[in-house]
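Pasting two entries for a bug report.
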Amino acid sequence: MQIQYKTQRLSLRFFMLMLVLFGFQVIYGMILAAQQVDPTLLSGVLNFNVARAEHLNLGIMWIVCGFIGSILFVGPLLSKREMVAPWLIKFLFYAVIVIVLWNFFTQFLAERGVAGWWLDQPWLQQGLEYLEAGRIAGILIFVGFAIVAFVVLRTFPPIRQWNEVHWGLGLGFTALMVVWVFGLFYIQRLDLQEYFRWFVVHYWVEGVWEVIHISLIGTFLVLMFKADIKSVGFAVFWGITLVWLSGLIGNAHHYFWIGTPEFWQFWGSLFSALEPLPLVFCFWHIYLDAHTNKRPLENAPAFYFLLGSTVLELVGAGILGFVMTFALTNVWSHGTWVTAGHAHLALFGTFGMLGLAAAYYAMPIIRKVPHYDQRLGKLGFWLVFTGVLGLAFAFSIGGTVQVYVYRILGLDWFGGDIYRSMGVFKLMLPIFGLVFVAGALTIMYDLITLGQRVQTPAGTFDHDVTADRRVTGWRKPLTGFEAGIWLLWMWVFGTVITLGLLSFNLPRVRVDGDPTLPYLLAGVGYPGLLLVTMLFVWRFLASMEARMAVAGEPTTADDAMVPNLV
């Protein structure tokens, strides 16, 4: 495949910016891991709360850059024409850099209590988690989202010609702008402010980002496997429908403990339990599309990250999200490390890996290196995949101990009781963090230098199997039944984890202070879930590798053509 439209090249600058911001986020992550081990590290210079805010904000910004880069690459293919207003896209690139730098410097104002109040609005910074940016940055972000929505909607064909993918991306990028409006005003009452803050945070992730994610997954599957756009569109339609059906009211799980009416506990628990449904559907969708015609896996790193995005979406956002969003489990897990385990798999696993998948698909085409050594990309995937699973394990097990020590025994958080009890898990963070850093550096080096190094055709290193029937063992074709069994085991361990958190409600634990049952269930559930996740991805990719041909060399003239996305 070659570049068909000049404006597709504009995606390259956003992918490069994505990699730079990703690198800085990883640096902040390692600082945070080190501060967990030694809380005095950089005290007064870069305090933990500031580093954590920067870590979160950089994650959001590089993921958004990945979204923009993806739509700039696939947008012309979906529209059969160039992207409109390329000058606006170039302006947007520099605006994103300004927003990142502005947000970086204003974070330090939080330590000094400087918010920049004027007209009853905090113009410099407002200190709300995930929405720390003050009103100046907020308005600039809104303008940036408006530019993206305008470019996408003006580039797409008339609405009557839209298919499901057009609708998903059109609605997604428009909602990205609209939902941000709820973060552009300040309310004095803390409970009401939290109510609207979660409008932005939750609807962004579980209402808007999920829609964009499902639509882009479908688009890249069509490009990689020449899947039928109608069948992919059918899956995208039902995925988006289920996301909005469950996610809108499921937002109520954020309203359990902020002074809002108690009826939210029932509705939040009910609809939050339904939120994994579209994620299961998304996983099944990628399995079916990857196996429709048994095409060789020509761009392995791109598919590795695409699969990782879908599986970690199911595990991190779906199963671990399900675990902690019942009122009776959330009362214990809320605000603990258990939440951080879910968040790392859900945010980086789902949306970060999608951005990396898009970069691995688009950048070799833009730089005209269809035959490249894919080993670094594969290695980078396994390192970050293993690293983030390890981080989730440390957070989750440590969070279980934290719940017991802090909320059952009532020991002092700031007196150091919890620090001592979680010492082993705090030490695990920089260890798995180093694994993740190694993967991130490998990925950044591979993508940034792509086309500048001496490249060796990927097929030299790939085992070429001409017939699936000759492959046995771990590399044999993955059937739908076997995939379903793997999926079932994930949910079995997810149920064990849920029961572990529910057991904190038992008098034996809550009153008598016996942690045996929650510790036992967590000790079985979390390692089981994460191990099954890793083995399943290994099994899935092994079956795909077994049918690999020389990357970038289509078997027929028709295969060399861009699939019809319209």
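Entry 2 (this is the one that rendered wrong in the viewer):
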Amino acid sequence: MNAKSRRDFLRSCVASVSLPLLENRAWPQVHPKLPAIPLPYWSTRLERFIDPLPIPQRIHPEGKRGGALFYRVRMREFEKPLHSQLPPAKLWGYEGQCPGPLFEAMRGVPISVEWANELPKQHLFPIDTHIHGAASPAPAVRTVPHLHGSRTDSRSDGLPEAWFTPGHSVVFHYPNDQQAAPLWYHDHALGITRLNVYAGLSGFYFLRDGEELRMNLPAGDYEIPLVLQDRTLDKHGQLNYCPTYDDGTEAAPGRWGPQFFGELPIVNDAIYPRLDVEPRRYRFRLLNAANSRFFHLYLNLAGKPTDVPKLATFYQIGSDGGLLEAPVPLQRILLGPAERADLIVDFSSLEGKIITLSNDASAPYPGWDLLREIHPPLLELMQFRVVLPLTRSVRAFTMPSSIPLPPVDPADEVVTRDFVLSQRSDAQGKALAMLINNKGYDDPATVFPKLGSVEKWRFINTTDDSHPMHVHLVQFRIVERQGFDFGAFLRGKLEFVGQPRPPAPGEAGWKDTAIVNPQEVLTILIRFEGYEGKYVYHCHVAEHEDNDMMRPFIVVSAGAKPA
């Protein structure tokens, strides 16, 4: 049976099923004539690891307003080269920086931020006006920042439709009433999030507390933020946004495609940078800020990316929502878009060595349905060179043997909700939209959690790609992942197969984004704390959330009637 006949057969099966959530599933496809992988233009022309790693500058408050520290952040267009062998590229950034300036906030110390849009009225990239929220009369340039991972009032959350245009600003308030965590901020404007973030609108926000500070973790010059992205440049060294379909073919100019994979790795907005380090412990705060790309990272002591890897061990001490209960020794770590990791790397025994931060994740991820790679792999991201002398005495630090995390008891769960992830495709199998429960963002809200309640959410992935699912307002705990019988699901029944798998040790703490793999159910527990009001949940592949894999939910008072 050829690919088209197989698709038609599967569609006929779906048409006979009474479960409407499955009628738009993205079926696995065989691609007998896969396009050849184009040779990336710049990746073979740029010398690697010659430029120093840029470190994001810290931002300082201008004073106080209303009892809160007050900051002003301007969104601006600017130019800078992404590599010393390239001409300056036109970028967007907070305070003219990519990544944006680093916020350092303290738990219990609220801040207010005036976000000012000083961008030009012409976007860097064409706008697909067929996407919800991007059609006329919506202007091309509009922004709204979202502090990802924060427990914030809905009016300061950065809802996608709360965008504002050049010449305008908003003031958002962040109470910082949660445990220390590596939060991050990025644009969230409806229908163009993928374009604004790709242009450069993202940055780190470190929330600290007394417990973290008492641990004497590596700090100052020894705590390094690493913002991981991927970009494609044209022959003039300018950003080129060229999304593709599942088979690797490019979308028509200015039209939406379900994924974007850049040809060059970007770390702190530099291509193939290096960091010279001392033979001591460092703390690295990692963020996957890529549009679609997953990173499966490792520290490689081998000389070439094609050599057999020689792996260095590191320790994960925290994830999205803060510190883990105990350090986790690792040699590899997976980060989907929007996920963060707090790592300790000890270079003490590696004096004189060169270590390459490497990646072997496929694009798209996990790529189980592909016959071969159709996007260039990004095997090397940056290098660490242990060539600096010790300039200060090394402070000893000891992680507690156990850091108790506030429990979320499954017995407290009052509601279980299912969310089916699917893809609507055309007759040729090309994606038209990504959906949750067969609904788009503009459809009325159907989820109304009660403030203070605990709910169990199950994300059921019927597509061929992994989706990093993000829930605003809350941090949650992963319960388990488990496969399901797809044939039974076609008949309207969710039947699990195999044994449930607990979260990996590195994701057993608080999370705000978690990966759900193909034909898998991800189960999480959420306590809805903080505020009533409207929020959203969505896939954090930016192309997916921009084209309807995002839905609203409304937190209601504890005394409200069940919804």
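Dev reply: Rendering is fixed now. As a check, the viewer should reflect this: The helical segments are 3-15, 193-199, 210-213, 486-490, 542-546.
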